[in-house]
Write a structure and sequence with these properties.
The chain has 167 residues and is mainly beta. The protein has a single domain (33-166), classed as OB fold (Dihydrolipoamide Acetyltransferase, E2P), CATH 2.40.50. It contains 2 helices and 11 strands. Strand 4 and strand 5 form a beta hairpin. The longest helix has 18 residues, at 149-166. It is globular. The two termini are 17 Å apart. 33% of the residues are buried.
Length: 167
């Protein structure tokens, strides 16, 4: 599988605060900070702009409608909607994810699409310095790669289009 770029563009702008747990923030936000939802896949930490995360759902809470292969781990039924769950590890060519009871699904909005992103662990939402030029930053001594949900959806659509042409 070829390497797919799903990292945040350097020009991403800071967005208003949002807490993945649904609690209101106190508004004492420092200019130049943005909030990232941190998730772990294996030994790697990733950050997604928290404003694009609708909710974080424990894996044992969802009902799997179907299990797929490849870049989509499966489809889950969540509050009357069907939601594809992306295997970000496979998309980044880091190997396939293994589902386990302690995993979570981050429900993310990406333009007109809504996707689930599987995580081995969801940590929390952290304010970080604005727009690291390298697409990575440090949080609690962890190197965090910043991922853009819009690029995830674009990579999935491109992969699907390639399969349709080949099939």
């Amino acid at each position: 599988m070829e390497h797919v770029s799903v990292f945040a563009p350097k020009s991403a702008s800071p967005r208003p605060p949002w807490n993945a747990h649904g609690a209101e923030r106190n508004g004492s936000r420092t200019t130049g900070l943005r909030d990232l939802a941190l998730l772990r896949l294996g030994d790697n930490w990733f950050g997604i702009d928290a404003e694009s995360i609708e909710r974080v759902v424990p894996l044992d809470y969802v009902a799997w409608v179907s299990l797929d292969h490849g870049l989509i781990l499966g489809t889950v039924g969540l509050h009357g909607r069907l939601l594809p769950v992306v295997d970000l590890r496979a998309l980044l060519d880091l190997g396939a994810s293994a589902l386990h009871d302690h995993g979570s699904i981050l429900v993310a909005r990406a333009g007109d699409a809504e996707i689930g992103i599987f995580a081995d662990e969801f940590d929390d939402v952290f304010p970080l310095p604005s727009d690291p030029a390298s697409g990575r930053c440090t949080c609690d001594e962890r190197v965090v790669l910043i991922v853009d949900p819009l690029r995830i959806v674009a990579a999935l659509r491109e992969h699907t289009d390639r399969l349709a042409v080949c099939g």
